[in-house]
Design brief:
heterodimer, A: twelve-stranded mixed β-sheet, ten-stranded mixed β-sheet, globular, B: alpha/beta, eleven-stranded mixed β-sheet, 21 strands, disordered N terminus
Chain lengths: 468, 424
């Protein structure tokens, strides 16, 4: 069956923008002066200012990783980007206090409504700074801290400094160095020992301005025996020029703690989304990344877990949908550094039209470790003849008491399947949509209910006159 | 079996002038190309210390010719035999070859069959990282084996090639070029052997060309000394409905870099790529492969087995590439690492690049130890643990040898494997 389905994935939800007056604007281009401007506005302590400048030096000295990564990276013009835009550095605690021009954006995206319905806390970032940040009183009373990175740094320096930059060093890669130089916004979360946060905490990242770079920095520390689920969403309007989003997210799960980090990435198709995410799991701790990439022009993101303590567990569940002109370069890193650590990677990608999805993985099990196990499964679905998928895993598993298996498969939607559904009166478009949803269904079920509904809606494929 | 001894038509080590000019250009290219660095994706995880070739020298003519010829034993029955040592022909038997089959040194083929030589000699670009070493090979190659099987010709018994190195730090440049005409059939066993347990350097190329409907079984038994550094750069080009089966057994070498490219250029072609790699001590086997599906409805099947003991290392980096026009591709790639020691270091990078949606493609990589149950079963029957381990490793590799259809050849390979694993 030769089909040329006209697949329209609904990426339009976030495609709008309002003119906003910014109080602070670091201008375009990146020099030491940009850093000083940001540090002045944010009233950074001296060690952070120096940390940023050192990171800028590293960023400038590191080459683009195009010896393995997409050459599309060369199209990022760092001199044309605006590195800091805000209406002030202090987020509001009540939606009533959020300036009207920013508030209507989040209302249109449905954030206040979701907060009322099922969230334990929300942070809403608009360009460089959080416009709104609040947690439910009951959660705050348990000692949970959920603030922006600036506030975390200023009000909780003893916890912040201990872990900041420790999971992902500045020089980990060129874009983590860039983030370290100009970071602003993102969340700082601390969960005290034994506290299990019942409802998810959510952050919403919104890019509103053209030629803008968003560099949020998130640090989550789950103390012994605690549990937390964090969800992030993101959107941006579709500008003619490219936009850069380069976040660094560090998770620390202390003994017996559990962190689930859920991302639904729906950037517009002009966004370079280059994100470094890594978690450090101590003894018997569990870190789970659920990573769903639907938007952006180029995403490069490989969430990782370093299993540092005995019986720690790491998991990455990844769904990527690459439409025409999109490249979803995603994957996972699992570093086993203690006995009896286990990890699981399940990746499903769908390439549509000329879309390209790439899985890159790294699995390391050190020698002299015992009882470590990794399981990796990568499945790719190709919708059209010129769709593309790549798989590039790297596996180093040492030690004779460890085991690892990796499997990948590539398939297309079978003509029989579509025919069967059409026979029963389902249109070809709806049949394709059902088949794609079926392909990712077992993963989507791992999402919290509200997100799985959202995700199904995003993957809702509309096809008309598709038989060619 | 014939004992007829024939002298080659041309004097050894005597290339035509036009090829000597190409060799000078290749030498210049070798000198110009940079030494690979870790940052090169095709050298990821590689041990670059092995690329220091400064200790190696030109090989002298073989001193113990008679001993090497006598030691060049393989199958009981063969159609022909070519024995080369230190870049020169030592011995040739070709009595049972059907009419029209050419088996001689590359040098004489360049002079006597210039058209064929020019069409097929190193005709494929080196794509898996070792361009520099392919240039070195071309600059220094002498003798080598050239086999041409004309259309509709079957060579019933296998042909054996022996390529020897002798002397401390000697450098050899083995080359095997096999051209199979339409609907021809042939089996070749290529042995790489050291006369002594000394350090040496081998930089070899072997290219297999299969025309429409041809069937080639090519076995490489690499048994260099445990102190040899060797490059083996292979390419296989398979045309319509032809089937290539290539098995590489890496028994020897201190550092082996193998690059195997299989390009399926004709519809309905098939390429089987197998490798068995027992490694121990500090030996290291670095293998890079490419299954390049250009034509539609072609099949490729890759299975590489590594058993790693002591502080040995393996690197497997494989790629299945399905080009936009290659619909109906059926491609399979699997590497299995059996880990026998805590210090062993296996690295696997099984990759896919799929540019067509009508494909069946899968790959897999597994790492695991010997099953404790299997070991217990044998020990309970009085088999000492060490021997039980070797039997299990033998069984692990034997599972792959079942892909070899020719019975005497499979039994011979099983014997070589058992000897290599000291099972008796």
């Amino acid at each position: 069956m030769e089909t040329k389905p006209d697949l329209n994935i609904d990426r339009s939800v976030g495609d709008f923008h309002y003119d906003v007056d910014y109080e602070f604007d670091a201008g375009t281009g990146l020099t030491e002066k940009t850093i000083d401007y940001i540090s002045d506005v944010k009233e950074d302590p001296d060690w952070i200012r120096e940390f940023r400048k050192e990171a800028l030096r590293k960023f400038n000295s590191m080459p683009m990783p195009t010896h393995w990564a997409s050459h599309d990276l060369e199209n990022i013009v760092f001199d044309n980007i605006r590195y800091y835009l805000s209406q002030g550095t202090q987020p509001k605690r009540s939606w009533d206090d959020v300036p009207e021009d920013v508030k209507r954006t989040f209302e249109r995206l449905g954030i206040p409504e979701q907060e009322r319905k099922f969230l334990a806390g929300v942070e809403a970032q608009f360009d460089s700074e959080a416009a709104y940040s609040n947690i439910k009183a009951a959660v705050g009373e348990q000692g949970v801290i959920f603030v922006g990175s600036t506030e975390g740094l200023q009000k909780h320096p003893e916890i912040f400094k201990k872990w900041f930059g420790k999971v992902i060093p500045t020089g980990d890669n060129k874009f983590s160095a860039l983030n370290s130089a100009v970071f602003s916004g993102g969340s700082f979360i601390y969960i005290p020992p034994g506290v299990k946060v019942k409802h998810p905490l959510q952050a919403y990242f919104r890019i509103n301005a053209e030629n803008f770079g968003q560099f949020e920095r998130t640090l989550i520390i789950a103390d012994e025996g605690s549990e937390v689920m964090y969800m992030e969403g993101c959107t941006a309007p579709k500008f003619e020029t490219s936009t850069l989003h380069s976040a660094v997210v560090e998770l620390v799960a202390l003994k017996g703690a559990k962190i689930q980090y859920i991302t639904v990435q729906n950037w517009s198709a002009n966004v370079f989304n280059l994100v470094t995410k890594r978690g450090l799991a101590h003894e018997e701790a569990e870190i789970k990344w659920i990573d769903c990439n639907i938007g952006s022009r180029l995403t490069m993101k490989y969430p990782g877990v370093i299993m540092k303590g005995r019986k720690a567990r790491g998991e990455v569940i990844s769904i990527a949908l690459a439409g025409d002109g999109q490249h979803q370069d995603t994957g996972a890193k699992m570093v086993h550094a203690a006995d009896e650590t286990t990890s699981n990677i399940v990746s499903k990608s769908i390439s549509i039209g000329k879309g390209r999805s790439t899985y890159r993985g790294l699995v390391q099990i050190g020698r002299h470790l015992k009882g470590c196990k990794n399981n990796t499964e990568c499945d790719a679905l190709l919708i059209n003849t010129d769709s593309r998928t790549d798989t590039y895993p790297a596996i180093t598993v040492r030690g004779k008491e460890n085991a690892c298996q990796h499997e990948a498969s590539v398939s297309k939607i079978s003509a029989e399947q579509i025919f069967y559904m059409q026979q029963r009166g389902i249109s070809e478009g709806a049949a394709m949509s059902l088949a794609v949803n079926g392909f990712v269904n077992d993963l989507v079920q791992q999402f919290p209910m509200e997100y799985s509904v959202e995700l199904k809606r995003l993957i809702d494929l509309e096809m008309e006159g598709s038989v060619g | 079996m014939t004992t007829l001894m024939e002298k080659p038509a041309a004097a050894p080590s005597a290339w035509p002038a036009w090829f000597q000019a190409e060799q000078s250009a290749a030498l210049a290219e070798y000198e110009k190309l940079p030494v690979p660095v870790r940052k090169d994706e095709s050298w990821r995880f590689a041990n670059l210390k092995a690329l220091d070739l400064s200790a190696f020298v030109d090989a002298n003519p073989v001193a113990s010719e008679g001993r090497l010829i006598n030691a060049s034993t393989g199958l009981k029955e063969t159609a022909a035999k070519l024995i080369l040592g230190n870049n020169a022909l030592l011995h040739r038997e070709a009595g049972l070859l059907p009419k029209g089959v050419i088996l001689e040194t590359l040098e004489s083929a360049a002079a006597n069959h210039t058209e064929l030589f020019k069409k097929y000699f190193m005709a494929q670009p080196v794509e898996l990282g070792s361009r520099k070493y392919a240039a070195l090979h071309k600059a220094r190659v002498a003798a080598g084996a050239f086999l041409y099987v004309p259309a509709n010709t079957s060579v019933e018994l296998p042909i054996e090639l022996f390529q020897w190195v002798e002397g401390a730090n000697a450098s050899v440049f083995p080359h095997t070029l096999i051209v199979c005409g339409e609907n021809s059939r042939v089996t070749v066993v290529d042995y790489f052997k050291s006369a002594d347990q000394l350090p040496a350097f081998a930089c070899g190329v072997n290219d297999l060309h299969l025309a429409r409907g041809a069937k080639l079984t090519y076995i490489s038994v690499q048994d260099w000394s445990r102190e040899t550094t060797a490059f083996h750069l292979n390419s296989t080009i398979v045309d319509r409905e032809a089937t290539a089966t290539a098995l590489i057994a890496n028994f020897g070498g201190a550092f082996i870099r193998g690059e195997s490219l299989s390009r399926l250029v004709g519809e309905g072609s098939r390429s089987e790529m197998y490798s068995i790699n027992p490694v121990e001590g500090t030996r290291e086997i670095d293998q890079r492969t490419l299954q390049d599906h250009v034509a539609p409805n072609a099949t490729s099947d890759l299975l590489y087995l590594n058993a790693l003991d002591d502080k040995s290392r393996t690197i497997f980096a494989g790629l299945i590439k399905v080009q936009p026009g290659a619909k109906g591709t059926d491609a399979y790639q699997k590497v299995k690492n059996l880990i026998l020691s805590d210090d062993a270091d296996p690295n696997s990078m099984p990759g896919l690049e799929i540019l067509n949606d009508e494909v069946r493609c899968s790959h897999g990589a597994t790492n695991g130890p010997i099953s404790a149950d299997e070991l217990f079963y044998m020990e309970a029957r009085g088999i000492p643990a060490d021997k039980a381990r070797r039997l299990i490793v033998n069984g692990f590799f034997n599972s792959l040898l079942t892909h070899i259809e020719n019975d005497p050849l499979r039994l011979h390979l099983e014997g070589l494997l058992a000897a290599r694993l000291a099972i008796g």
